[in-house]
Design goal:
single chain, about 450 residues, alpha+beta, Heat Shock Protein 90, five-stranded antiparallel beta sheet, 9 helices, disordered C terminus
């Protein structure tokens, strides 16, 4: 799974990876430097031993000058350009060189006295880098110091350091990969409670659970507790809103009923006008009370309505109401589908559409539902006369009716659009294959376990 740079997993892994890379580079450079120093000190110690052997083998005679009393133990001094050289440079005599130098001499600076062994790098006979150790010795019968020098090429040292650096790169690279793998495993394990919390919140949001369940680490447990309190508070607000809406409905409908009854006992133009206005007021009260109740319900977390039982119940009720007309209602789909909202809002929307279809149908009403991505799409069709294209948008106006002979308040489709809009859905009208009207209602779907498993 690709993680975004803003994700906590990416930040933890990237941060640990950068620090691991930096630390391994520093450790690798330090180890290579220390190994190089160790190799150099070991090489210098070997040169020091050869220099001491050269000094011990040297003799001084006032007449002959400096000479060697015997051969040295290192045979490579006798091989021309072997890479191992020695040189004796008197201040007042002829320079003596090893056979390995052949006809060359080591470059020395005799202006600075070297009473102690001095190590430095220089260029050898074959333009190779050499390591030189030199020292000035004054023999008892000599007045001027004699410079003794031993040198050797550093090719073997470089090869040894190179092999060590290669081994260090491989070892630290494997260690870095192992550390990054361990960091990834640790981060995933450490953040697992957050993924569990995410799954629990999804269950609550989809209506599969009422609260967050399970145990959480001490760092996350307070968050889970606060979320549960928020869910409880949300449910409490919903219950309070419903109570207020019910009280308001009772407070408004009672005076309207009294006025309606009083006006029914009078005759004349004024009484008829009052009754018409009271009827409009009652319809408006019903309309806006439904909107207020739905707005409160739409804010609740975890509401879920199984589609098939609700559709079946509506079909049974409407078949009884329209039994005298012998209207057949066919319901297709809905198994294992859930609407993310309140049952009474679902009944209000789909019930209005099915009731409207039954009013205008000649003999058949068809209701189908299918899931499209995260939405449920309901198709309510009838075989009635239908509605002209220019009239389809007008029927959503409050109280707009095109046939006064058909019973109803004219608010059904308007209420359906309002409630669907509060849930993030919508409704459209089209011509049905049956010949009448087709209402397309889109509502949010609730997460369903079987559907999720099938998708995976």
């Amino acid at each position: 799974m690709v993680r975004r740079p803003s994700s906590l997993t990416f930040r933890l892994i990237a941060g640990a990876g950068l620090w691991t890379f930096f630390a391994l580079v520093v450790v690798g450079v330090a180890l290579a430097f220390l190994f190089r120093q160790t190799v150099e000190r070991s090489f210098d110690a070997r040169l020091d031993v050869l220099l001491e052997s050269l000094i011990v083998a040297a003799e001084y005679d006032p007449d002959k000058g400096v000479y060697l009393s015997g051969p040295l133990a290192e045979p490579r001094f006798e091989q021309p350009y072997s890479g191992w050289y020695w040189q004796i440079t008197p201040r007042d005599g002829q320079v003596m060189i090893s056979r390995s130098l052949w006809d060359r001499e080591l470059k020395e600076d005799l202006s600075a006295p070297e009473p102690q062994p001095h190590h430095y790098y220089s260029v050898g006979p074959d333009n190779q880098q050499i390591r030189v150790v030199e020292r000035d010795i004054i023999f008892p019968d000599s007045k001027a110091p004699v410079r003794f020098a031993v040198a050797a090429v550093t090719t073997e040292n470089k090869m040894e350091v190179t092999r060590f650096v290669g081994a260090i790169v491989v070892a630290l690279g494997l260690m870095g990969i192992g550390l990054i793998g361990a960091v990834i495993a640790q981060v995933r394990y450490g953040l697992r409670p957050l993924r569990t919390l995410e799954g629990q919140l999804e269950r609550v949001r989809s209506g599969e659970a009422d609260r967050l369940e399970g145990g959480y680490p001490s760092e996350i447990a307070p968050v889970a507790d606060e979320l549960n309190k928020l869910i409880d508070h949300n449910a409490e607000l919903l219950a309070r809103a419903r109570t207020h809406v019910g009280n308001l409905a009772h407070a408004l409908k009672t005076p309207l009923s009294v006025l309606m009854n009083d006006s029914a006992t009078h005759h004349g133009t004024l009484a008829a006008s009052v009754r018409r206005q009271l009827d409009v007021m009652r319809r408006l009260v019903d309309h806006y009370l439904v909107r207020a109740r739905t707005a409160a319900a739409g804010q609740v977390i975890g509401t879920r309505t199984p589609v098939l039982p609700a559709m079946t119940s509506l079909r049974t009720t409407l078949e009884k109401i329209y039994a005298s007309r012998d209207v057949r209602i066919f319901v297709q789909g809905g198994d294992r589908l859930n609407f993310r909202g309140e049952r009474q809002d679902f009944d209000e929307m789909l019930g209005n559409l099915m009731d409207n279809a039954c009013k205008w149908a000649d003999a058949e009403v068809r209701v189908t539902v299918e899931r499209r991505d995260t939405n449920l799409v309901f198709l309510v069709e009838d075989d009635g006369p239908g509605i002209d294209d220019e009239q389809r948008e007008a029927v959503f106006s409050r109280g707009q009716r095109f046939d006064e002979a058909t019973p109803g308040s004219g608010l059904g489709l308007s209420i359906v659009r309002d409630i669907a809009g509060l849930y993030g859905g919508g409704i459209e009208l089209d011509r049905s294959e049956l010949g009448g009207l087709k209402a397309v209602l889109t509502l949010p779907a609730s997460a369903d376990t079987s559907v999720q498993q099938a998708a995976q």
